[in-house]
Specification:
258 residues; Rossmann fold; 2 domains
Length: 258
Amino acid sequence: MSVSKEIRIYVIGGTGGMGKWFADFLRSKGHTVRVSGKDQDASIPAFAAWADAVVVSVPINGTLETIRKVGPHMRKNDLLMDLTSLKQEPVRKMLECSGSEVIGLHPLFGPTVHDLKGENVVICPARGKGWLPWVRGLFLEDGAHLVEATPEKHDEMMAYVQVLTHLGTIVTGLTLEDSGIEPKELLRFSTPAFRTRMAAVDKVFRFNPRLYGDILALNLNAGAIARAFQRNVSRVLDFIGEKDSEGLTHWIKDAKME
């Protein structure tokens, strides 16, 4: 199948966050877009029947159930795609519940981004090739860097890129909470590096803790990453306990970070 006609797209979860960003992005490309938001599941059958492509952009913990609801309404030449931060289970569910073409997509940026030049987007083709050139073109023509991967490879890399990053941020925030020191007092003594770190902590704890909880708890590779993190923290503690700055310095220098 070649995608050449006017495309009608339905974004489930298109009223906020990345779903709204993607809906606006598609409209800027001249496509006709309909959206539904929270508690609007009743619109799924009719909107899916109308659309040529359906994009699932709901919280991670609701993604599989949403795919289960929309999948049976997809036609063979349609496209079913998700924007979730995880790929193995959503892609498996899309393949299981639909007979359409299936692509897993993960823009590696947030909804505040306005210029795609240089931004990374992961695409996981799963079934069919008719829609691939269109999806690739959406991002490549704006200068994004497109990375093709299997769902398994995507989730493995996200364990390092997202799980490890947010794990450190969450542990930092919880440790500061345990200290009982007021944030204003900490800022009086802060360095630029600390203020940058605190901005990340603030983002996780104040704006969308469920997102970060899902990213850590539902990535199948997260346990191995967390255990590796724990092992390295334990080794640092050993150096600290022995007041072995020389050993810690050599350990850091020996790390291959290039």
